[in-house]
Amino acid sequence: MDMFNKALKLKIPSISDEVRDIVAGSVLIVFSLFTFISSFPIRKTVVSKIGSDFFPKLISLLLIGIGIFLLLRALIRHWECRKGVSSRSGSAGACGETEYDNSIILTPLLILIYFAVTEYFGFILSTIFYLNFQIRVMQHGGINRGFVLLLSVVFSLVVYFGFIYGFRLYLPFGIIPGLIW
Question: Which residues contact 139 (CB under 8 A, 6 or more apart)?
């Protein structure tokens, strides 16, 4: 896991907070729209009153709302900075650039990998691996690996069984675990 700590020490070019939030809000809206549209072919189960498509659509709509809020707030701040007034401190000096680390690049990459491997490894294994890597990307050193592993396993199992027994919705078990068990 030292590759994450080494990669995080490299800095990417600085950008303004407003530009970063405009890009992030736009990407979030597009990704959420894609997820919402992709949830239409999900078959409804007869076991539950709430269909299997309910939660993906609900989460997608919430993320679209967050993306719109983030985008509008960033556009307002960008407009204020261009006029020479900052809502943060009342001066144009707060509209500077900020330097970010590679977690901005690694996080979307990890999410894409997570979605790609979930079909093969299933929800539990994919989520355990994803949470381990994501926590290490976001934590910049001094991390207890045993605690992170325990947290990942417990969280994945609680969510998995919560969906099965609480909502009567089945999350992907995966092709590879299906071949083993």
Answer: none
